[in-house]
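FW: tagging you since you asked about this chain on Friday. Here's the raw sequence from the shared folder, copied in full. Didn't touch anything.
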Amino acid sequence: QVQLVESGGGLVQAGGSLRLSCAASGTIFSRNAVGWYRQAPGKQRELVARITSGATTNYADSVKGRFTISRDNAKSTVYLQMNGLQPEDTAVYYCKLTTILANDYWGQGTQVTVSS
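HL: got it, structure written out here
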């Protein structure tokens, strides 16, 4: 059974940084694409960044140049380095793993709060 555990969220001042981690188990991690999504109160969940099994990345326009997604297959973990955080980045951040059979698995989410 695939399980994802996010960590690294918290409260930070505007301009600060956080690094989120998404640790996976129950899957051959290196074969999977992983995405970070976020959902702010009253808004739809949106894609923030995604990394494929071949380490190709893509980002939402709103985070380009500030956020970096990376993966460590040896640790079955994907990271989201967030720099230059702004209040509009406040949300619950989720990671989603997509298997080669196109099955999706979600983590429980981690809260990121950016104060102005």
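FW: Residues 51 and 57 are 4 Å apart (CA to CA).
HL: agreed, and The chain has no helices and eleven strands.
FW: great, closing this out.
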